[in-house]
Amino acid sequence: MKVIYAIATLSGTIIGVGLFALPYVTLRVGFWVILGYFVVLGALIILIHSFFGELAIKTPDFKRLPGFAKIHLGSRAEKVAYASITLGIFGALLAYLIVGGEFLTELLSPVFGGNNLIYTLFYFILGSALVFFGIKAIAKVEFWGLVLFFLILFAIFLRGKSFMAIENLFPSLDISHIFLPYGAIFFSLWGATLIPEVEEMLGEKKELLKKIIPISILIPIFVYLFFIYLILGITGPQTTESALIGLKNVLGDGIVNLALVFGLLTTFTSFITLGLTLKKVFWYDLNFSKNFAWAITCFTPLILFLLGLKSFIVVIGVVGGVLLGIDGILILLMYKKVVPAENRITRFKKILVYPLFLILLGGIIYEIIYFIH
Hints:
The chain has 373 residues and is mainly alpha-helical. The chain has 15 helices and no strands. It has one domain: Up-down Bundle (Amino acid/polyamine transporter I). Helix 1 (2-14) packs across helix 7 and helix 14 (312-338) runs antiparallel to helix 15. The protein is globular.
């Protein structure tokens, strides 16, 4: 059961808010371009996560990415890692809070009344409580959340299949949007911050991490492709940036309420799992008290939200393209330094570090230029 919970925790966290941007992005570039991105970036991300898995096995427990960077690369890399992982997870938590609060508002306000702020605060209270209670509670939430997620996705398929049109998947390609999928797909597939967490969950079965990582990334890839096929196939040109609103225009309120539950699940499980990860960065690596680490982790995104940072697209773009790219580069540098070239396989992997580094660096530069413009 440990292995199932480990896969559910990693893949359940990866399947998050980035999912909802993918049908709209596909509308801009077409299905074949998106499929190409998933093949290339999927392989790249599996490799980087596998590298980090090997590092996790070689590194003492109860360390996260900044702790790894200090041990293997020195104090400067540690500071960069603290900045990137902290800002990155804060940004992701803020994105989940924004979208999760909206989904909860759409779902419950027609019944109970109230505004977005009330439901966002309710979402925050539930999520922060589960972050406080730790990995056992969260592992079970991820597992059953993932099961329910698949059931709801299948129900939406049954309800919407009569509306589907395959030609909706193949809009005319606008070359100006050719790089648009990079940040969204990178964000939607990244889960490296959870690798040490999953390693701890496996206990004495740490070697299984090598098999769990690719499985846990392939599951979201197939889910995303099916979700794109489902939403874009149904809504076509009416597909919206958050996917679900466009679905409402075609299928009506009933099915959208089911879709909102499904959206709420994906954001909520990722919120609590990433929250736990950041709490442990503050707790284990920075030696903050457990309760103070929890308070900083949970209340910082809430404060940012209350201060008016509510642009989901801006938040997800910066986190996915820039901050996660920095995390990936740190992992590549550590792998190159620490893992010995013992055989042909490891020698080949170490050669791959160079092109992977260039791709990540190019992605960071592109996203910064795109963000500035």
